[in-house]
Design a protein that fits this description.
By secondary structure, the chain is an alpha/beta fold. It is built from six helices and eight strands, in the order E-E-E-H-E-H-E-H-E-E-H-E-H-H. Strands 1-2-4-3-5-6-7-8 form an eight-stranded mixed sheet, sandwiched between helices.
Length: 237
Amino acid sequence: MPEIMLNGPEGHLEARYHEGNGPNAPIAVVLHPHPLYGGTMSNKVAFKLFRAFADAGFAVLRFNFRGVEGSEGTHDDGNGELDDALAALDWLEHQNPDHGAVWIAGFSFGGWIAAKALMARSEIEGFVLIAPAANKYDFAFLDPCPCDGLIIQGTADDIVPAPSVQALAAHLAEGERDVKLALWKAQGTSSRNRWTSFRATSMATSPKGLATRPELFPGCPGVMERSASDGCGTASR
């Protein structure tokens, strides 16, 4: 797993990169949770997302937002962090000029930045948002949602309440895109670390493939059978 320093808008960004399976492999950028509350690219959930994409054959990049550990710059309340994410995507696309589908993923604050990136870059074809902090951040800009994707939320998360994310997912599913919601039953904020069991061995097919493959969630039969607008998320783990 090469350690790299890529050029960001406010200086170097510390990153880790995994090469894809061939020149036409899909690519993905993974974004970590809030920098002011200890979020880094080494966060367990962000790392598991990174590994899931890598195991599925993606060329995948994770990095520290500006001001975090080895990355230069200072926190910018989401505006500069979006610029960081887009710079990371630029680097990844440059490294993989013949790449396949483009994905972005994020956890909590990183999920909000990932959602903003969807509207900034039309080439993004799929997304994964884990606990995207719909109770704290405004997602009204996703109108309509520009691509298919998956939202994952814990039912007992006391930092990001499940009803706020359910409402977000239902709104996004009102459009033409296939947006799925998976609810995971667990206890308290510690349930966030249980998402480290997340698997995505079928991601490499297509954005549509992510939204319809139940094997993304071993042990959760039926979790992906209905769209967010249908109230998907009754399966538990």
